[in-house]
Here is the input.
Amino acid sequence: MFVVSLTYVCELSEIEKHLADHIEYLDENYAKGIFLASGRKEPRTGGVILAQMESRAELEKLIAKDPFKINELANYEVIEFIPSKTSEALSFLCA
Here is the structure.
């Protein structure tokens, strides 16, 4: 399990230009079952993605395809963790 924290390194106007492509990228990875949750940081300085992948290396390859990464609009921090306790609704994460 991974938490991906994006921090914008440009003006929001640049983010907006690539937002539709970024959302398409997110949608593709939700459809594959890789992304479990995502959203904006508040204040709007970046975003967060919760991802379920086999390895950090595979996730980093996937991140390289994000339009925000391709266009150098954000820095990415990847945090790996192993869920050991969840709410009942998220119990599948500990399986």
In short: DSSP finds three helices and four strands in the chain. The first helix runs from residue 12 to 31.
